[in-house]
Amino acid sequence: MTGYPGSGKTILSANFIYEGATRYGEPGVYACFAESKKTFIREMNKFGWDFEALTHENHFAILDLSIASDIDIQSSLNLIMEAVMKIHARRLVIDSITALSVGLKSRLEKRQLIRLLYKLVQKVDCTTIMITDMPWGTERIGEDIEEFIVDGIILLQGRYDEMGLLRRQLRVLKMRETEHALGTFEYKIEKNGIEIDVEPKVKGRSRTREHRGRKLTVEEA
Ligand SMILES: Nc1ncnc2c1ncn2[C@@H]1O[C@H](COP(=O)(O)OP(=O)(O)O)[C@@H](O)[C@H]1O
Ligand SMILES: [Mg+2]
To answer: Which homologous superfamily is 2-216 in?
Structure first.
């Protein structure tokens, strides 16, 4: 998943983990490289998502691997693997590859990181969201090769309308083995999390009839 800063990548991913743990019996692991565990828990509480309670029930594990933690990459990936095995996780979020790769100077080092991540994702039996940050004003999705090896790419963007209001937009650029929606979908960050408007703003393949004309939750979308 990629997008500009503030586009909702962390919230959407947390939404995905929370729904998995509470509605589908799929435990989740959240690896925080971009912010501290404390900030994450506090921010998500505002949406009514009690990740602390989920942790106590072993449905959720959060790893604080932010820059301040001073843990090297290989150890971080080992910790992720351990957490996944411990709670039998089925969902995993790595937030973000951009933060994880801070300090890697050469292209070679970045490629090695992608290779390590690829191996990790192959080993764990999880649906995994890997986040990359797209700097403002650029269109570049990843650092190097991750956009080719991942099964799917979800792009979160925004544009300002004529009233000067930010309209958030989601696009699916790639989803292997899926006849995915081709449109541009507006979404909002509401008090219950991410809400996606299923009427595409740019017409693409429309969704099933019962989905048309109403808001979908992250899970349904
Ligand atoms: N409680 C909230 N209610 C509505 N919108 C929020 C809330 N908290 C954060 N936001 C919006 O979400 C943005 C941050 O989302 P986040 O997922 O952290 O972005 P990213 O990870 O893509 O940088 C904020 O800039 C703000 O616009
Ligand atoms: Mg974020």
So the answer is: P-loop containing nucleotide triphosphate hydrolases (3.40.50.300)
